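User: We ran a pulldown and think these components assemble together. Before we commit to crystallization trials, I'd like a predicted model of the whole complex to look at. Sequences follow.
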Amino acid sequence: MLKEYPLNRVFTLVEPGPVLLVTTAEGKKKNIMTITWSMAMSFSPTFGIVTGAWNHSFEVMMKTRQCVVAVPGADLIGKAVGIGTCSGTDTDKFEKFSLSARKAEKVKAPLVAECLFNMECEVSDHIERYGIVILECVRAWENPNRPEKRTIHAVGDGTFVADGEKFDLRREMASKLPPL
Amino acid sequence: MLKEYPLNRVFTLVEPGPVLLVTTAEGKKKNIMTITWSMAMSFSPTFGIVTGAWNHSFEVMMKTRQCVVAVPGADLIGKAVGIGTCSGTDTDKFEKFSLSARKAEKVKAPLVAECLFNMECEVSDHIERYGIVILECVRAWENPNRPEKRTIHAVGDGTFVADGEKFDLRREMASKLPPL
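Assistant: Here's a predicted model for the assembly, 360 residues in total across the polymer chains.
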């Protein structure tokens, strides 16, 4: 059901600025959080997210040095907001939000089967001053079977915007981009 | 024509991940570049962009410690791509792309009148290892007169997506957000 996604295209999942779900696991206990502060930083599969001790998942992520970063479609917006407004300290969020955890290949954190894309990541650095965690994606997956293909962007005030009209400027930008 | 925009809402301009235009000035020479790697990092008007010596504007930004970060609407996508694929070393990009530079209040870099929003910024830090420049917005402006309100998101492969359907989950998120 999940199809491998090329690592050299992983930055294109992060660059548009979608809402992300981030899973962690320690022993049998898994958790998931919603992240809206993230950034592609190059054409490599390395990118940054901002998180910290205010997220229950943070400690496990830093201890295990692993996580999965998933890209939900717009159909999951209610779940993404629900995940972001309760805590893994007292809630099994996979159960509460009816999300299917699938075994990842390179990390112990689970994939989220309902998401459009899943990136298995290793924590490669932590810029403590700004709470920036640098993640390197080591394996990525696409779920080609979701009818809803639009991702969602958080505005930060409780409103969100889904992907709309598409523009193709590949020809105009060819000189600036790596071959994908 | 430009209306002051509250600093405590500035992070909401960056968080959704729009394509940004960044202006700099040194003496009478001004320049503008397109940035697609950026990130809100908190609810403050401080955010990060990724740039480096490969951008002609970078040296001036680091020397003057100032820039303006502008948010173009989807109607400016052709200009944003054009700006991103030529160099200020040999081109007056404001002239080439018919953009109107307006005097900013707190920095010497110019505002871009045709953009939806302009953020006057000071460079507050530089994380050299990743090319992350930390900017603090000290004054912000809105242009309420542009008919095109949609911003654009770069996918990174030469395609772009404009803002589409909006979702209002302010009630569900009230517990997690500062009052705006």
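The radius of gyration of chain B is 16 Å. That may be worth checking against your pulldown data before setting up trials.

User: Thanks, that helps.
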